[in-house]
DNA sequence: TACCATTTGTGCGTATGTATG
DNA sequence: CCATACATACGCACAAATGGT
């Protein structure tokens, strides 16, 4: 039995309530003996379940079944082109606006910079099969661009360019539902006031903020994930 | 240097583009020699980065820097009571409806059962500080309830009861933006047509479907995550 | 196709580090 | 302060996948 076998058997016991929520389960050494495997193998299995939120492990206190297991759903954030192509449609995008601009206060707060800091402002419409798919508004800190050169975002979208060139950064994401503002509705080809799915994302490296994006998807868009 | 040290150094090299996207990095053995650690330690570090989507590993082919790193955001799905209390507000809930009912087609499809299958229908309003926080509509397969006994969902919410009693199951989640229907708007104390943030979640065990929930949050609600 | 060489994946036994009851 | 249980590490071995001959 490998570590996945151990994990599955432990999971079965948790689900079968052989080990009740809150209860301390046998130690690694005891389980290793019972299953006839090395302690490291048990460790690997239990660590996996702890990462999934089903077990809570503390030195000396031992391992216990989580009382209120926090379900962790993993969202895979792909670039928009991939998302569109995964639907079997042809991707395209149009840059609607591109200029230098001072960031508004709300954006400055999210990016951790002073309000009015000058950044590149980009407004882009993403298309699926020629029809509007998502509306993007982005502030971009050109100071962090490699070589200080601003790429041609008419060629490759800023979304994709950043993933390939300034990626491997950290960030936070917020999802919400809003009413489409008139300009947004016009860009997306929907009615003002229609509900839009909003994704707002701030990205930064250890040194500096990189970009803040506000992405709007029209009615019918669904963000899916598996648990 | 421990495995986290190895991971951080590898991450630094990726960000610094010492190793470019798509490029094969040195093998585990070589890195182990370079860092002066055991191969298992390098393995642990690289496995971690691969899980994060920054590396792609294949036997024989080696380890390469991901060309298009898929950002994996982890959502921690907590029970609504915790979410409300985390905001420093008092949680409460009211059961608006509770009856046996055949499931509609859309729900049947999501749950993988025949349309019209009889399940328990529950409509609940979750309160934060006495004010509507979320509106919940749920179909529940009472066949899977331990002992076949239906708990008193006036006491503990179905949400919380299920997490504690039928938890450790799998499922899928969908998020979307919709317009509040008149009944929903009335329950939430908002205007019909206002945008609502919709969470739909189907849960099942290996044997049978457990429950399908449709959860509505009114304007202002934001789902946050860190990358 | 068949086989081989390479690289990652996993396992074992042991030892030491570290948080903590 | 100590005993305990998890966390990590080492070195070795073999398995499994797979790119290339």
Describe this structure in words.
2 copies of one chain form a homodimer. The model of chain A has no long low-confidence stretch (mean pLDDT 91). In chain A, strand 5 and strand 6 form a beta hairpin. The two termini of chain A are 26 Å apart. Chain A contains 7 helices and 10 strands. Chain A has 2 domains: 3-65, Orthogonal Bundle (Arc Repressor Mutant, subunit A); 80-217, Chorismate lyase-like (Chorismate lyase). In chain A, helix 1 (3-15) crosses helix 3 and helix 2 (28-35) packs across helix 3 (39-51). Chain A has helices at residues 3-15, 28-35, 39-51, 80-86, 105-111, 158-165, 182-188, and strands at 55-58, 62-65, 71-77, 91-102, 118-128, 131-140, 170-179, 195-204, 209-217, 222-226. Chain A has a 6-stranded antiparallel beta sheet. A two-stranded antiparallel ribbon of chain A has the order 1-2. Chain A is an alpha+beta fold and 227 residues long. Chains A and B meet through helix 1, strand 3, strand 7, strand 8 and strand 10 of A and helix 1, strand 4, strand 8, strand 9 and strand 11 of B. Strand 10 of chain A pairs antiparallel with strand 8 (170-179) of chain B, so a sheet runs across the interface. The first copy, chain A, binds a DNA duplex (21 and 21 nucleotides) through helix 3. Chains A, B: Residues 1-68 form the HTH gntR-type domain. Chains A, B: It comes from Fuscovulum ytuae. Chains A, B: Keywords: DNA-binding, Transcription, Transcription regulation.
């Amino acid at each position: 039995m490998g570590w996945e076998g151990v994990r599955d058997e432990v999971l079965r016991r948790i689900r079968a309530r052989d080990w009740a929520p809150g209860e301390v389960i046998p130690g690694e050494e005891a389980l290793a003996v019972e299953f006839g495997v090395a302690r490291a193998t048990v460790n690997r299995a239990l660590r996996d379940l702890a990462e999934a939120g089903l077990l809570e492990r503390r030195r000396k206190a031992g391992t216990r079944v989580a009382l209120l297991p926090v379900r962790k759903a993993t969202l895979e954030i792909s670039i928009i082109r991939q998302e569109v192509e995964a639907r079997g449609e042809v991707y395209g995008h149009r840059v609607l606006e591109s200029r230098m601009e001072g960031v508004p206060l709300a954006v400055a707060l999210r990016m951790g910079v002073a309000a009015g800091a000058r950044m590149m402002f980009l407004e882009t419409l993403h298309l699926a099969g020629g029809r509007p798919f998502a509306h993007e508004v982005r502030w971009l800190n050109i100071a962090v661009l490699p070589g200080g050169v601003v790429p041609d975002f008419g060629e490759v979208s800023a979304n994709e360019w950043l993933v390939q060139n300034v990626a491997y950064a950290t960030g936070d994401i917020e999802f919400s539902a809003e009413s489409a503002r008139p300009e947004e509705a016009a860009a997306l080809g929907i009615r003002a006031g229609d509900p839009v799915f909003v994704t707002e994302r701030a990205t930064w490296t250890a040194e500096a903020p990189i970009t803040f994006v506000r992405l709007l998807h029209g009615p019918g868009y669904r963000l899916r994930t598996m648990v």
